[in-house]
């Protein structure tokens, strides 16, 4: 994929361990992949569908995803308003799941709304990626048109040269 990811991998000087850095690089690529975003979208959908049965399990998975993302992207994670918003949704949902375990019915609608809002973030990331790909394709098209014009000029010049050479013989 030629699009640039929303977040960059933080390179900390104080992290000399190559294995840790390698793991972070692999997770960085995974967290910026369409597969990852599609998986999260699927988890959010399953979470909403199964809210009453396994809501806490999904909340724990989302908190784990958040913690790993913060570790992978370091301070870059907090430079995106959508990521901050997503983290707030995850933490508020987790708080409600844990603190209000007995009041699930009253809080369930709030949790559903908060989790569905995550879908907006994921869709926004897909649209940003699509915009970046579209820009790259537009640049390529403009470059190709420019090269085509140059080649057309060269063909016309050669035709003119050939025509004047034949007539002059």
From TrEMBL:
Places the protein is found: Cell membrane
Residue spans crossing the bilayer: 40-73, 85-103
Keyword vocabulary terms for this entry: Cell membrane, Coiled coil, Ion channel, Ion transport, Membrane, Transmembrane, Transmembrane helix, Transport, Voltage-gated channel
Coiled-coil features, chain-numbered ranges: 127-161
GO cellular component: monoatomic ion channel complex; plasma membrane
UniProt membrane topology term: Multi-pass membrane protein
Keyword match DNA damage: no
Domain Ion transport: 49-124
Name by which UniProt lists this protein: Voltage-gated hydrogen channel 1
Organism: Lojkania enalia
């Amino acid at each position: 994929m030629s699009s640039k990811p929303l977040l960059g991998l933080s390179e900390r000087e104080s992290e000399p361990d190559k294995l840790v850095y390698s793991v972070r690089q692999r997770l960085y690529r995974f967290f910026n992949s369409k597969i990852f975003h599609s998986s999260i979208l699927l988890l959010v959908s399953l979470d909403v569908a199964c809210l009453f049965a396994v809501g806490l399990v999904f909340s724990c998975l989302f908190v784990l995803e958040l913690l790993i993302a913060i570790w992978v992207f370091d301070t870059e994670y907090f430079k995106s308003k959508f990521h901050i918003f997503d983290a707030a949704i995850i933490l508020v949902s987790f708080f409600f799941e844990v603190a209000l375990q007995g009041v699930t019915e009253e809080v369930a609608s709030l949790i559903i709304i908060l989790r569905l809002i995550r879908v907006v973030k994921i869709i926004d990331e897909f649209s940003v990626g699509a915009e970046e790909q579209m820009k790259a394709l537009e640049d390529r098209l403009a470059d190709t048109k420019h090269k085509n014009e140059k080649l057309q000029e060269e063909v016309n010049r050669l035709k003119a040269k050939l025509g004047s050479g034949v007539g002059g013989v």
